[in-house]
Amino acid sequence: MLTEYPAVGFHFLVTFDIFPQLPYDMRFQSVSGLSVDVETEDFKEGGENRFVHKLPVRTKYSDITLQRGIFIGSGLVLWCRQAIEDYNFQPANILITLLNDMHLPVSAWYVVGAYPISWSVSDFKAEENSIAVETLKLNYKYFKTYRI
């Protein structure tokens, strides 16, 4: 499907394959860290002094950071607490879907084997009128990108 304009980055869903998952467990105000780098290894060829070969070794995926307002009774928070407090890690797959103006998928990232490595809550400030935000950082094995 070709469009005249690039996709917007503010209309998306994040779906976990954990239970229970409530509708607000898919809503986040930001997703960051969807990136991959190729690690390389230097190889110096004998007799060639002008350059060094850089050979690909493996891929390295960044941690994903999710932010949203705090919800009471969230299945996602229960999943995080079991991992962080009880050291009961249950990796989950995640589907991050970018949507168009008609709520149809434009692109998707399927994240494999994610588990929480950090959970934090924003500062509470009496002089500001803002919502309390929780931040969840996830490590994972890899992701696949799908263009629709």
Portion of residues within helices: under 10%
- Tally of separate helices: 1
Main sheet summary? 7 strands, antiparallel
Principal-axis shape equals: globular
Q: How much is the radius of gyration in Å?
A: 20 Å
Q: What structural category arises from helix and sheet content?
A: mainly beta
Instruction: Report mean pLDDT, rounded to a whole number.
Output: 90
CATH superfamily assignment?
Answer: Hcp1-like
Distance between the termini: 7 Å
Q: List how many beta strands DSSP finds.
A: 9
Q: What is the CATH architecture term?
A: Roll
Any idea of the CATH class? Answer: Mainly Beta
Low-pLDDT residue spans: none
Count of domains: 1
What is the strand content?
Answer: over 45%
Task: Report the CATH topology name.
Answer: Pnp Oxidase, Chain A
Order of helices and strands: EEEEEHEEEE
Tell me the layout of helices and strands.
Blueprint: E1 12-16, E2 30-32, E3 36-43, E4 53-61, E5 64-69, H1 75-84, E6 92-99, E7 105-121, E8 133-139, E9 142-147
